[in-house]
Amino acid sequence: xxxxxxxxxxxxxxxxxxxxxxxxxxxxxxxxxxxxxxxxxxxxxxxxxxxxxxxxxxxxxxxxxxxxxxxxxxxxxxxxxxxxxxxxxxxxxxxxxxxxxxxxxxxxxxxxxxxxxxxxxxxxxxxxxxxxxxxxxxxxxxxxxxxxxxxxxxxxxxxxxxxxxxxxxxxxxxxxxxxxxxxxxxxxxxxxxxxxxxxxxxxxxxxxxxxxxxxxxxxxxxxxxxxxxxxxxxxxxxxxxxxxxxxxxxxxxxxxxxxxxxxxxxxxxxxxxxxxxxxxxxx
Length: 283
Prior knowledge:
By secondary structure, the chain is of the alpha/beta class. It has helices spanning 9-22, 57-62, 64-82, 88-98, 113-117, 143-153, 204-215, 230-241, 268-281; strands at residues 27-31, 102-107, 122-124, 127-134, 140-142, 191-195, 219-223, 246-249, 262-264. α1 (9-22) packs across α9, α4 runs parallel beside α9 and α7 (204-215) packs parallel to α8 (230-241).
């Protein structure tokens, strides 16, 4: 059983309706930043979220100064980002998969928390901060190993206690002056985190894997996503065209509320925990 978290009566009724809709079906899950807020990672669009202008792929690739600023902020944030732990929502989804109810998780997050929570089939639409690759030779590096190199090359760098963390593990540094940007230890080429930057497209083969997961399921559960990013909306549309029930759990409106069979306006941790318990009880 997942931890019991308190719900108000209206939300509890909606969770019961969602369980009735999903019961007996194989469920594909689509998650966004709202699933990770209870782990201390903020989202881009939730209430109270600071206005942020993420670096685009074009800026990163075209400007050495932009790359220096990115790597300073990315390293400062990654140390905090990597220390985050999966929450009750991540655990609930892993439990659904272990019970044979969920077919897998498609996530727009790059934090790796679904994997750490025990989910086995995870399609990371926007990539992962766990890896870095060389844009020249293709060599892949573990982010933990790269962090050791960065700190050896920049011994003055320190993570401030009040760092303002972003959803992608980035922060806005006060300065990037004097920072030595890491390069590929194999060929000396440019390194890039294995994530989809703003201005980039989700790789075709990765989106096809997500589509396949929806295609082989009998329902779609969306959690913690406002569905502003087109890749998420397209997956909801795939489910709708197949006449699959769609349950959405999110604080605030989403672009697909009108297409939802059940919409629950609430926090993902308590709602997913309660929903998982109801579905597990019926098996």
